[in-house]
Write a structure and sequence with these properties.
Number of strands of chain B: 14
Order of helices and strands of chain B: EEEHEEHEHHHEHEHEEHEHEEHEHHH
CATH topology of the largest domain in chain B: Rossmann fold
Helix content of chain B: 25-40%
CATH class of the largest domain in chain B: Alpha Beta
Helix content of chain A: over 70%
Number of domains of chain A: 1
CATH architecture of the largest domain in chain B: 3-Layer(aba) Sandwich
Number of helices of chain B: 13
Largest sheet of chain B: 6 strands, mixed
Number of helices of chain A: 11
Oligomer: heterodimer
Shape of chain B: elongated
Chain lengths: 251, 331
């Protein structure tokens, strides 16, 4: 048992070391959300009417944080493919720790780095002028962590069935981007056409963004209880899915 | 307790209708250096991945250090070290970080960790590279680091899959030196695969020749060569297609094998047989371009048992299939 926990810790630490060592990757992954906030947010601030106080920048800030959490964690899950191509995965697969521990170490590590990026973007949003009313910081961190864990798990599950990065663009264009656009991160779902609103109910990120909006701005289109329940159950579900898929890797 | 480090019985791995490892039974005595020799695609790596519990056998099983690979995978894993054919380091981390992750996963307690790491990095002569990111290592240094990592938890058996593949001759020689030293000083059983015949000859106490997923013969390299006996006369023929069977009609010819435009003829007292052989070829109307005489090498042993040289073996369609499978990640 001790060895399993040590193994999880070591793999978690590996993710953090890699994260902090690669400054260019960090800047690269924060570039897009920064421009969303700084250009889209400020540019459309006075043009777009949103159902909350404080204007468009304020409205999209939680949405962009949700986007960062999703992108970062999906990516660190999918990076398992690289571990596979460059061999490190084998080292973990023949170690005397369970695959569950490997998934947990990887997942917790990826989620931690995603939350760090989410916090950085939140600070940037505040610096750009978004006025936040943090309802409960601890709950916010837990919620951000759950969203991240959910998407790292999804990433690991996908990566477990792929052997190279060729399918990555496919996932980017047909899974990640639609999830982002449908989530209500950029526009209020209350004023969207019915079919979009219905579709958004099947998007995990919708509940993530709604929950973040509540925790950061104090109000949201979806009741926080619903968001929390949706995210926590989806996190468990996706983790089980990831473990199942990862267990199937033969090599 | 069994004295054998490996005891395999009927170990088989099939992928659809392709049998990569075909009912292999094998015992490896503890403390020896045991080589698996065969062309690419012969099933060496698949055999090893089953022994290290990375792949489940389709049928059959094996004991490694007395533990069953199917039922006691965890105990097997704790008692072995592995150096894979392809690199398996995280090259964004330093050597120390790579070793620390390994130590954590293998439950090496913190108080002896640093000492062990220092000791092994000394053995593989990387002591001054502990805090360097692996990306900056040369191929040979990475290999040595992987060997150090494989030994960190003091395994009883070390598996080395093509440990010198793609390395320059000098590095290759020094790696083999470490391996021999380790085998002696730590009395570790070493199972290695290679397709460098000369290296296998020099390093291994025992060799198994494996081809098409089957073990063809197992013995000490010297015995394998002695079993063949006599000398090998190698003829290069420029025209005509001498029928090998006619050579066998000569009575004193033990065997004759054609490969790559050469005919290898095994005889006793080769130096005395060359004139007679030349007269025979002349009578057959075949021009011999060159003749050479040598003691049988492992290449000849391989040729004898498989009917081809190890290089020809690589052009084998089944080997190609394995490579394709690998490329597509098929099972």
């Amino acid at each position: 048992m001790n060895r399993e926990i040590e193994g999880i810790y070591a793999l978690w630490k590996r993710e953090l070391i890699r994260f902090f060592r690669s400054k260019s990757r960090l800047i690269g992954s924060l570039g897009m959300p920064f421009f969303f906030l700084a250009i889209l947010g400020t540019g459309l601030n006075s043009t777009i009417a949103v159902p909350i106080e404080g204007g468009y920048l304020q409205f999209i800030a939680p949405g962009i944080i949700g986007m960062v959490l999703m992108f970062a964690s999906m990516f660190s899950g999918i990076i398992v493919i690289m571990d596979r191509q460059f061999g490190f995965l084998k080292e973990t697969l023949v170690a005397p720790i369970s695959r569950l521990s490997v998934v947990l170490g990887k997942g917790l590590g990826g989620a931690t780095t995603a939350v760090i990026q989410g916090i950085i973007i939140m600070i940037i949003a505040i610096l750009l002028g978004a006025q936040v009313q943090l309802v409960n910081i601890l709950l916010l961190l837990v919620f951000m962590f759950m969203i991240s864990m959910m998407f790292v798990s999804l990433g690991i599950a996908i990566a477990s069935t792929m052997t190279d990065m060729h399918g990555f663009q496919l996932i980017m264009n047909f899974l990640i981007m639609p999830m982002f656009f449908l989530s209500g991160a950029l526009f209020p779902l209350s004023s969207a056409p019915d079919f979009l609103r219905t579709a958004s109910l099947f998007d995990p990120l919708t509940y993530g963004v709604a929950g973040l909006r509540y925790l950061i701005l104090g109000s949201s289109g979806i009741d926080f209880g619903v968001s929390f329940l949706a995210i926590s159950s989806l996190t468990v579900l996706f983790m089980l899915f990831a473990i199942r898929q990862f267990n199937r890797i033969e090599e | 307790m069994t004295k054998n480090a490996i005891e395999a019985k009927g170990l088989t791995k099939a992928y659809g209708d392709f049998t990569a490892v075909d009912s292999v039974s094998l015992s490896v005595e503890a403390g020896t250096i045991f080589g698996l020799l065969g062309p690419n695609g012969a099933g060496k790596t698949t055999l090893i991945s089953m022994l290290v519990t990375m792949r489940r056998p389709t049928s059959g099983t094996a004991l490694v250090n007395g533990f069953d690979i199917s039922k006691q995978a965890d105990s097997v894993r704790k008692s072995i070290g592995i150096v894979f054919q392809d690199p398996s380091l995280d090259d964004e981390l330093t050597a120390r970080e790579n070793l620390e992750i390994h130590a954590s996963m293998y439950g090496i307690s913190k108080d002896i960790r640093d000492e062990r790491i220092a000791e092994l990095m000394g053995i593989v002569e990387l002591g001054d590279r502990l805090n360097v990111v692996v990306k900056k290592f040369s191929g040979g240094m990475k290999r040595r680091l992987e060997i150090a990592r494989g030994l960190l938890h003091h395994p009883k058996v070390l598996f080395l899959d093509e440990p010198t593949l793609g390395l320059d001759p000098q590095t290759r020689a020094s790696i083999w030196e470490y391996i021999k030293k380790l085998n002696k000083s730590e009395s570790i059983t070493i199972i290695l695969t290679t397709h460098y015949m000369d290296e296998a000859d020099k390093v291994c106490d025992k060799l198994a020749i494996i081809d098409h997923g089957k073990i063809i013969t197992v013995d000490a390299p010297e015995s394998l060569k002695n079993k063949l006996g006599g000398d090998v006369i190698s003829l290069k023929c420029s025209d005509g297609d001498p029928r090998v069977s006619r050579l066998l009609g000569l009575g004193w010819v033990k065997s004759a094998v054609k490969h790559n435009g050469y005919i290898d003829v095994r005889v006793e007292k080769g130096e005395e047989k060359i004139p007679a052989l030349m007269r025979f070829m002349e009578k057959e109307g075949i021009t011999v371009e060159s003749v050479s005489l040598r003691k049988p090498s492992l290449d000849d042993v391989f040729l004898h048992y498989t009917g081809r040289t190890i290089r020809e073996g690589e052009a084998d369609p089944r080997a190609g299939m394995r490579l394709r499978r690998k490329a597509w990640g098929g099972r």
